[in-house]
Design brief:
This protein has 307 residues and is mainly α. The protein contains 11 helices and 3 strands; from the N terminus they run βαααβαααβααααα.
Length: 307
């Protein structure tokens, strides 16, 4: 008897009309992935190359773009491969890896936005102490925090997933996520639920800190015209990013756990994809359009590249 490693094969949901329109889907998602790569790589390159942008706010923005590239890599290549072959299956180990990448990216986005909220709070409410508080060492620690917490949470989540025996093999999504895999199990998932609750409480606390920081920011803006100018220029795109992230993550989490069979499949598929489309595509665009320094340096680099 030879020793062999057995990997279950999961089936993913098939896009509606994929038999007839898979080439259209493939072209659309390839274009979408290309735009995400272009927007985030371009913004990251601008920040890295321009010394004037080597400030904490722009460093955290660069980290956000790198995270979007990381998260997009967890979904788009696999989905484009499925569309080409018209085969929506995934081995269990690849499913766990995909869930790890996509959801550690979503968590990293939340932690990065929390760090960016802290940066704006110090810059506007405590401008004289900004550079003494946000030193290179402090920024390095905050960046480490942005990545370490999501990786630890997802690593524990994947370990808890792999201990479960599954008795079903179909995932009602175009990609894998922890809760969809948990629902395939025929064992008790109390420990998985407890871990999910701990992670949820942690991110609720982060959200509360963001709200508190913006309350203080609004109070500070009432007392100063300069603070209002800073708020309008730097905080509005950040607020857009927070709302974008909150909407997509909340909908994905609520429907994954409490989704109704009465909702049309096509509607669910579209909304499930918002997590992988809206933040990585529109958040960098908003920062480019709204932040004067980013816009100016981007145009300069673009002109230099063309010439």
């Amino acid at each position: 008897m030879t020793n062999q490693t057995y990997f279950a094969i999961y089936t993913l949901i098939e896009p509606k009309g994929s038999k007839s329109y898979r080439h259209i889907y493939f072209t659309s998602f390839l274009l979408l992935y290309g735009l995400i790569l272009l927007m985030n790589i371009w913004l990251s390159v601008v920040i890295v190359l321009e010394r004037a942008l080597h400030e904490p706010m722009y460093i955290f923005l660069c980290n956000l773009c790198v995270n979007y590239l990381y998260g997009a890599a967890g979904f788009y290549p696999k989905f484009l491969h499925d569309l080409i072959l018209d085969s929506y299956v995934i081995p269990s180990f690849m499913c766990s890896l995909q869930a790890f990448v996509i959801y550690s990216s979503a968590m990293c986005e939340c932690t990065t936005l929390a760090v960016m909220a802290y940066d704006r709070h110090v810059a506007i409410c405590q401008p004289l102490g900004y550079h003494s508080k946000l030193t290179k060492n402090t920024c390095s620690i905050l960046l480490l925090f942005c990545w370490t917490v999501p990786f630890i949470c997802m690593f524990i989540g994947v370990v808890l997933l792999n201990r479960l025996a599954v008795c079903k093999y179909h995932i009602d999504k175009l990609y894998c996520d922890n809760w969809s895999i948990v629902k395939l199990s025929c064992e008790s998932v109390d420990i998985n639920n407890l871990m999910a609750l701990i992670v949820l409480l942690f991110y609720i606390c982060l959200t509360a800190l963001i709200i508190l920081s913006y309350i203080k920011l609004i109070v500070a803006c009432k007392a100063s015209l300069e603070n209002r100018r800073k708020f309008w220029q730097t905080c509005v795109p950040h607020l857009f990013s927070i709302m974008n992230c909150s909407f997509t993550v909340f909908f994905d989490a609520m429907y994954s756990r409490y989704g109704s069979s009465n909702v049309p499949e096509s509607v669910y598929v579209v909304f499930a994809l918002l997590l992988l489309i809206l933040p990585p595509l529109f958040n960098p665009l908003v920062y480019v359009l709204k932040l004067k320094e980013i816009r100016k340096r981007s145009l300069k680099l673009c002109v230099n590249t063309v010439s």
